[in-house]
Amino acid sequence: MSYLIQQMWLCLLLAALLGTFIGWLLGKSSCRSKLDDLNENWRRKFDDSANEYSRNLTELSTTAAPDIVAQTPPPAIAPVTNQSSYDIEEVEGIGKSYGKKLRDLGISTTEQLLNQCCNMDGRITVAEQIGIEDFVVRKWASMSDLMRINGIEGQYSELLVYAGIDSAQDLGQQNANALHSKLSTVNIEQNRVKVVPDESSLASMIDQAKSLQAIMQDT
Q1: How far apart are alpha carbons 193 and 203 in whole angstroms?
Q2: Are 147 and 215 in contact (CB under 8 A)?
Q3: In the 8-state DSSP scheme, what is residue 91?
Q4: Does residue 82 fall inside a structural domain?
Q5: Is residue 17's pLDDT more than 50?
Q6: What is the rounded average pLDDT of the residues 114-124?
Q7: Which entry of 13, 34, 122, 203 is 20 to 30 Å from 209 by CA?
Q8: Is residue 71 scored above 50 in pLDDT?
């Protein structure tokens, strides 16, 4: 009798364990199913959000972009200029000695010399500081002014000054034919350049001079 009771308890225990195990399997399967359903729901929501964002971006690019392009200012274009500047020693008559004195005053280029000596007061001040006559500084300033024009350097600018052309503004008022004849005569006397610029080159220089701002002053 005792043996039968033990067998019955053992059967009940095995049945309980089996039931627990089957319940656990069913529960695990249910949880996985729920997780799969939840993952699918989130994936659909993400896809819907991505599609909505793509549609909004497309609408923005087709509607707002023209306004943005219309409001964007065009890029700035640097002005074209014929003005040139050279080392101060390139001016005929300055040389190394006066060049050093001018550089000690902060004048190292033809542009700086022109700006400093474009009027009488500036010329007198520089002349006194470097120990030279002011009319010589006036000649240097005139050559520096003419050297703003492409094609006019060193001895060419000096030849123009010898011919009575003492500023770019003055050059802009000349006639190429008459100027060529005058320069040829002066060059024979002064022997400043090997070849006088032809009429075509002088015409180009005159046109450049007309476009430049007047800087040299008599007073």
Answers
A1: 18
A2: no
A3: S
A4: no
A5: yes
A6: 96
A7: 122
A8: no
Is 216 domain-assigned? no
Residues 122 and 204 in one domain: yes
Q: How far apart are CA 176 and CA 182, in angstroms?
A: 10
CA Rg, the chain, in Å? 47
- Tell me how far apart the 2 most distant CA atoms of the chain are, in Å: 155
Global pTM exceeds 0.85:
no
At residue 189, the 3 state secondary structure works out as: helix
Region of 191 (left: φ > 0; alpha: ψ -120 to 50; beta: rest) is: left
Note whether residue 205 is domain-resident: yes
Residues 65 and 95 in one domain: no
Domain span at residue 4? 1-72
Number of other CB atoms surrounding residue 133 within 10 Å: 10
**pLDDT tens across 46-55, in order?**
556 555 655 6
User: In 3D, which of 109, 114, 93 has the Cα closest to residue 192?
Assistant: 93
* Residue 196 DSSP code: P
Q: What is the mean pLDDT of residues 116-130?
A: 97
Predicted local distance difference test score (pLDDT) of residue 150: 93
Task: Work out the mean pLDDT of the chain and round it to a whole number.
Answer: 80
Which one, of 143, 148, 135, lies nearest residue 192 by Cα? 143
Here the tokens at position 122 are 């500036």
Residue 109, strand partner residues: 87
